[in-house]
Design goal:
There is one protein chain. By secondary structure, this protein is an alpha+beta fold. Helices cover 35% and strands 24% of the residues. It has nine helices and twelve strands. A six-stranded mixed beta sheet has the order 3-4-2-1-5-6. A hairpin with a 2-residue loop joins β11 and β12. The longest helix has 22 residues. The C terminus is likely disordered.
Length: 278
Amino acid sequence: MIKLIFVHGNIFVYDIEDWSALRKAHRIVGNIIGSTSSIPSLPLKLMPEEALLLVEKELASIWENRNTASELPDPAANLEDSLLEAQQKEYRQLRKRQLLCLIDNIVEKRRSMGDHRSKEEILNDEINKSSTVTKENMIWPIFLKDPIQSLSAISTDLISSQTTTLRLVIFKDLWQRGYYITSGEKFGGHFLVYFGDPVTYHAIFIVKCVDSETTFSPTELISFGRLGVSVRKRAVLASIKNDAFTACKSATPIQTCHEIIMDYFSPLATLLFDPHAQ
């Protein structure tokens, strides 16, 4: 079972095999937030809806580190210092091997400049000048496993409070239809929807979850429709029946969802109702 780690209100995945399974087998994309200064790396951060779906489908469990920083084992507490020491030794040995190939030329040049120290002294001097590793330039590893082992299983209550029943039902409905789904915050919606993996597919829908009783002015509808057109996506307003809030954990939430796809044609917005909606 996939292990989700709850840290300060966020849900993370540290294990590279879990990340691969989420994406390839379960169409859960998340957001990679780690960095090696050049390429993205783990951990993976999940939306609350993604985590709750995985737990409901019995594909994952949620864990939390309940220890304080002072209670962490020594290897974790001194991780930075131990990494720095190991890299300093490794790079010094690497630099020594490189300089040994050049030491005769270096010594000859030093002799011409009046430096009559021994070859060993000159070699050590060159190594010390060119093999400095500090905390500012050290290389950090990419963790492929959760670095903290003292974990306790927790319920989904803390995660459920971060979303709404409306958003959760609509997310599950879209996921059950076979779509890939990511956050739509950058585009003024709740979700972005893809036909396939976002690595190779462009998002087709910006989905905004709204209560079925919500009213919109023509200007608001046109603005949302034009937003979708400007980023080459179709704007979708998604809602559920009033009595569907009690069906959040039912086996067939897909039957309770309604989507309105907005195709904008200046200066009017035409509402095209999803034929699958009831």
